[in-house]
Specification:
Helix content: 25-40%
CATH architecture of the largest domain: Alpha-Beta Complex
Distance between the termini: 61 Å
Shape: flat
Number of helices: 15
Protein name: NTP transferase domain-containing protein
Radius of gyration: 29 Å
Number of strands: 30
Structural class: alpha+beta
InterPro entries: MoaB/Mog-like_dom_sf, MobA-like_NTP_Trfase, Nucleotide-diphossugar_trans
GO molecular function: nucleotidyltransferase activity
Keywords: Magnesium, Transferase
Organism: Gimibacter soli
Number of domains: 4
Strand content: 25-35%
Length: about 525
């Protein structure tokens, strides 16, 4: 691969190493320079910039990342499409991430960098488990082939359903203990099938164990009145009296040290630590997850839990639905216009295939932005109808009484109502054909490029809507006046605009005239 500083006019057929803004436009990183580009760029075409050119035996960054990721994506892991030399890998099922003990040196930072979650991290289907980045714009094909051949697969050991029994031997907590345990089991694909109370003495607990065993549960959980610190304590002694055996006392996880593992017939028996009465993550969760994933629970395997077994406060609770921290995304949907161009009909309540245009627009946003409380719909003209649609979709509706003074007033109303977020989307309520995966692509691009301030979709060389804004631009957008959106702010930050090419003509289609409404079969009604 050749890499040089050249004036664009002398680099036809080369690709840009960095995005290149110029008066009236911008070329993105990786763009292949053409004669038409030079004509558009004017004097900028004479200023040297970094460019590169792949050789006949080179693989481009996306191709290289795809080939290596194909090897990394083992059982229970899927690889996404490449973006700028990066391939993210996702869990295909709920389970525990299993990492190989070593990877080729070339995946350690250069020429490719592989970042993963921690070994045995619990994941849910769709969680990102790893990210592979090819650092240079291209690699020799022989190097790519060697890295792909040597890479070791990441796997997700899937949780498999199991049945559990809970014996409460005078442990405090009562019904709360049952609810917490039921939720804890459900998080690892388990189900609480049997629940019984008994006294905290060897005879009573041994009898309860024997009875529970007749139902053949996969796991028997024992919540005792006191902690287990010795093999002669009541819980281990009762297990032996019932015909079972103690496999291990103690666990290298804190909280959760005072856990007992044993066996009774074909059932795994767990003496629960006192901390398991809380929904906060503890050693019991780690053991249940390994059991659900059908991973070994022998002393050698359990000893490995000590590395990372110090679970700090704020470590998460069982009701948390995702193991990955994600950027906080909010959205403003502008739906306040008086529809002057629509010829006296309410375009937002017009129906496409039986549902309002605004409802379809909202739904495309609420798919990638799961928290509907973070989606703000600004209403104005015919606010009652638009607000009712928003409420029916489960999002927040806010009326802008000053909507007739211009779009900027609606934008400001939305900005003022935004929750704490890292990015916010500004969308139009009359654009029902934008695809949900387009919005997801914008969000992913923001994660991938920390220098981006504004992220816009690009189709057929044209920017469209919606646009994703970094939260620290909120103050500037609050200064917009009149019937304007964010164009002036975007122009002031052109160097920070990231264009994301998408195969989605919907980003250019807003149903704001009677002709367009009719063209797409919308059934209109008077406001």
């Amino acid at each position: 691969m050749d890499f040089e500083d050249r004036a664009p006019a002398d680099a036809i057929g080369w690709q840009l190493a960095h995005s290149l803004p110029f008066p009236g436009g911008k070329l993105t990183k990786g763009h292949l320079l053409t004669d038409a580009d030079i004509d558009r760029m004017g004097n900028t075409a004479r200023t040297p910039v970094g460019v590169f050119r792949l050789g006949p035996d080179d693989c481009g960054e996306d191709d290289a990342a795809t080939r290596i990721a194909a090897t990394l994506a083992g059982a229970g892991v899927r690889a996404a499409a490449p973006v700028h030399g990066r391939v993210d890998l996702f869990a295909a099922a709920d389970g525990l991430l299993q990492l190989p003990t070593d990877q080729p040196q070339g995946l350690g930072g250069y020429p490719t960098a592989l970042a993963t979650l921690s070994p045995s991290a619990p994941v849910k289907a769709g969680d990102k488990v790893a990210s592979l980045k090819v650092i240079p714009f291209g690699l020799p094909s022989r190097d790519v082939k060697a890295l792909a051949a040597a890479a070791a697969a990441l796997q997700v050991a899937p949780f498999k359903p199991f049945r559990a029994a809970l014996l409460n031997a005078d442990a405090p907590g009562g019904e709360k203990l049952v609810k917490v345990t039921d939720a804890r089991l459900a998080a690892a694909a388990g189900a609480l099938a049997v629940h019984a109370d008994c006294g905290f003495d060897k005879a009573s607990l041994a009898d309860a164990l024997a009875k529970a065993s007749t139902a053949s549960p996969d796991v028997i959980l024992i919540a005792g009145k006191a902690a287990i610190t010795d093999a002669r304590d009541i819980v281990p002694a009762a297990l032996v009296a019932a015909g079972g055996e103690v496999l291990q006392l103690g666990l290298a996880v804190d909280p959760g040290n005072l856990l007992m593992l044993g066996k009774l017939g074909n059932s795994l028996v767990i003496g629960m630590p006192g901390c398991a009465r809380s929904p906060a993550r503890n050693g019991l969760d780690l053991v249940l997850e390994r059991f659900a994933a059908r991973l070994p629970l022998d002393p050698a395997a359990l000893s490995t839990l000590g590395a990372g077994g110090l679970l700090e406060p704020g470590r998460g609770r069982i009701e948390v639905t995702s193991s990955n921290a994600e950027p906080r995304i909010a959205a403003i949907v502008l739906a306040a216009g008086s529809a002057r161009r629509a010829g006296g009909v309410n375009k937002l309540t017009s129906r496409l295939n039986g549902e309002p245009v605004l409802a379809r627009s909202i739904r495309k946003i609420s798919e990638p932005i799961k928290n509907k409380d973070n989606i703000i719909v600004i209403t104005g003209h015919d606010s009652a109808s638009s607000g009712a649609i928003a409420v029916a979709e489960g999002v927040v509706a806010i009326h802008n009484p000053a909507h007739a003074e211009g779009m900027s007033t609606s934008l400001k109303a939305g900005l003022a109502a935004l929750p704490e977020c890292d990015w916010f989307l500004v969308a139009l309520g009359d654009m029902p054909f934008v695809r949900a995966d387009t919005i997801k692509a914008l969000i992913n691009a923001g994660e991938d490029d920390p220098t981006a301030e504004i992220i816009a979709p690009l189709f057929a060389g044209r920017r469209g809507h919606p646009v994703l804004w970094r939260a620290d631009l909120k103050a500037e957008l609050m200064q917009v006046e009149g019937d304007k959106g964010g164009k002036a702010v975007m122009a002031a930050h052109e160097a920070g605009v990231l264009e994301v090419p998408v195969d989605d003509p919907g980003i250019l289609i807003d149903l704001d005239t009677p002709e367009l409404l009719a063209l797409f079969g919308a059934v209109t009604e008077a406001p």
